[in-house]
Amino acid sequence: MPYYPHSEPSGGIGATSDAKTAAPALDPIPREQLASITIDDATQHIHCRFFAFDTSVVIEFGPHPHLDTGIALAGQLIAICREYERLFSRTLPHSDVSRINRAHGEWVRIDPRTADLIGEAVHYCTQSEGTFDITIGTLCRLWNWKARQVPNSTEIAQALRHVNYRAIEMSYGYSADQTGGDNSNGSSNDDEAWCRLRDPQAAIDLGGIAKGWIADRLCETIQFAGYEHFLIDLGGNTVLHGRPADQQPWNIGIPNPLDTGHSIATLQLTDVSIVTSGIYERRFTADNITYHHIIDPHTGYPARTNLVSVTIIARTSLDAEGYSTTVLTLGAHRAARFIAAHPAILGALLIRDDGTLLRFGIG
């Protein structure tokens, strides 16, 4: 797929900036060269492994009717992931998200797929009871789990003033102008999408939702190619369709947060998506305080919750990921009410900090 061109239309926003007219550069992706495609001769399933979205990705599909087309599909899936990472990343300089974040509140033309993802993400923000906000980018810049960096309270207070997903504005189908979307002075184009942040210091981070959207697009691509049996695993964001080569349901182990070398439960599933969010992996301890990576957009600090892990099962990966962080952040009591109120959640497995297992819709 070609990278979407970001040219400035006539009658547009005003003075140009690099944020609005970025060239279709191919930013290097960390460990991009790590990719392999293998074939199981016994089952005729194709296995694709590579690194993307700062995680390990595994895709399996089969049996392949024609080897050449199966290998071509595997290569296409890798290319799709590379393209989406270059669109949605907060850290790659030419991504749509980076360009929006450095546009200082001006309109930015973006790929329609980026616009679709942002629109979906805003929906989950509104559903989250305030626990999920994609304009958390200002806070994400402060926290550095690799360097074990804890920002001071003044920095957090300043960043919090710029966390509000309602600052996101979108325009579709015409050249946006400075009036905020009145198309009377713009030219109609159904393929155009524009975005801006009314708060020039706000910053979008799609890390909590993008893999769900991407997994659903990969699912559509594999099905369009004629495959009904496949697994997509984007670092714990998993789509299961049909059955594996042995014709049994897919077996998915849920890690035990208190003993990560073992599973606390094993689920047999098919034709669903499953996403696990937890506070037990990406964390560090400083001055005898443990900090995990799920930030509360109200406080700017890691969310205080009595849940250490949440697994959500849904028909789409977007639903599973869109709700998993919210359920985790709400804590056990509020989470139970939230799950009951959202029928898109087909099942949930919650693990409390004392190791207690709570099941919803799972036998």
Structure report:
The structure is a single chain. With 363 residues, this protein is of the alpha+beta class. The chain has two domains: 35-89 and 208-360, T-fold (Roll); 96-174 and 191-197, Orthogonal Bundle (T-fold), CATH 1.10.3980.10. It is 27% helix and 29% strand. The protein contains eight helices and 16 strands. Strands 1-2-3-7-8-11-14-15-16 form a nine-stranded antiparallel sheet, with helices on one face. Strand 1 and strand 2 form a beta hairpin. Helix 1 (67-88) runs antiparallel to helix 6 (210-224) and helix 6 (210-224) packs antiparallel against helix 7. The longest helix is centred in the N-terminal third of the chain and has 22 residues, at 67-88. It starts with 34 loop residues before the first strand and ends with a strand.
Please outline what is shown here:
The chain has 363 residues and is of the alpha+beta class.
